[in-house]
Amino acid sequence: MSVVFDPFSEDFFISPYETYRRMRDDAPVYYSQEYDFYALTRHDDVAAAFKDYETYSSAYGVDLGQVRKGEVTEHGSIIAMDPPAHRRMRSLLNKVFTPRAIEAQRALVIELVDKHLSAVDPTGFDVVQDFSALFPVDVMTTLQGVPAADRQQIRLWIDELLHRESGDVEMTASGQQAAVDMAIYYFRLIKKRREELGDDLLSKLICAEIEREDGRMEPLDNIEITEFATLLGGAGAETVTKLIGNAAVVFAQNPDQWELLCSDRSKIPLAVEELLRYEAPAQYNVRCSLREVRLHGVTIPVGKPVFLVGGSANRDPRAWTEPDRFHIDRDRTQAQNLGLGYGIHSCLGAALARLESAIALDKMLDFMPKFEVDFDGCKRVNMQNVAGWSTVPVRVLS
Length: 398
Ligand code: HEM
Hints:
This protein has 398 residues and is of the alpha+beta class. The protein is built from 17 helices and 14 strands. It has one domain (10-366, 382-396): CATH 1.10.630.10. A five-stranded mixed beta sheet has the order 1-2-10-7-3, covered by helices on one side. The protein has a three-stranded antiparallel beta sheet with strand order 4-14-11. It has a two-stranded antiparallel ribbon with strand order 5-6. The protein is globular. The mean pLDDT is 93. Protoporphyrin IX containing FE (HEM) is lined by residues 58, 62, 78-79, 90, 231-232, 235-236, 239-240, 243, 281-282, 285, 339-341, 345, 347-349, 352-353. Protoporphyrin IX containing FE binds at residues 58, 62, 78-79, 90, 231-232, 235-236, 239-240, 243, 281-282, 285, 339-341, 345, 347-349, 352-353.
């Protein structure tokens, strides 16, 4: 039977890796009759496509629902831009997201991780709902200057707008409502912030200037800042939530690796990289083909959605030795880890993602040096682009 890759199916949400293996071996340029998209799954092909923005455009969006509409959005967010607009926006944001600015957040991240982890009940808690869903959005919205009382509401909106019913490409009605409510919320907050600037990210974006098409320097308008603020919610909070939920499950399945980390905390950064490789929170990003592509005997016509499946590329035995083994000490020089993307759109928040994940793992090692997961009680999210758990019941062992 020929392989079926349905990114909106229960099968995919539960475990895509066997499907990926078959795609890499038998259909390296996969075509979905049902949804009319193509998908690349081999490491070489995905990495090359991430770099080739002239063929694989982001300007039509990076999820299937957006790309198949075939429209370029005027006021797109950075993730949905091609050069030269992308270059101009990225160089502005790079000035705000400097490694120094991120490192300066270390104390804040430690405080927020501690706050949420110390509130859980060690005899039985949900790593995701009680911990990993709470602190990343707190970090992001604190940086943005969102008032404390509204911070978790942002997360609830994002959960809603990324959710997909099984078999449905488009947002649900409540997802659309959440997207509108969140945009209105940020728009109002930005307007207010213009009148009383602070030291937060939104204030920095209000004060920054971007180079326009004609070379003029100009401040960003409220809609541009709103686009970016809402993107950061999804890109910056959901992903770290998934990485830490995945960590609890993967380490419970590989207790020797947790012991290794317990005995040598200097390996925490390696553990973060291995988690990004082994169980990528962002499984794929979609592009639109701007040119006809001929690859592995298949022709991808112009104007088609193309899935770049980083989650599969990171498990490709053509690139990695024993890719299905979770191994903190693996040789990382073998291939490019695509867990944080690659090329011009590679994760803008990579330094913050690594900092948050490393601090969370360090605190978890203190709090739960021995633990067990109730695997039967684990539940997965049904989301597009992002994959991971919504529930991971854990008990700390003495
Ligand atoms: C474990 C956590 C994270 C993962 C797995 C992740 C993954 C990714 C990936 C795969 C991309 C590439 C998207 C594409 O090529 O279309 C990306 C882009 C991006 N990420 Fe992250 N990310 C994480 C955390 C963060 C954080 C904390 C922030 C916020 C500070 C952030 C902000 C962004 C932004 C703004 C982009 C778009 C960059 C551009 O288009 O130039 N991410 N991320």
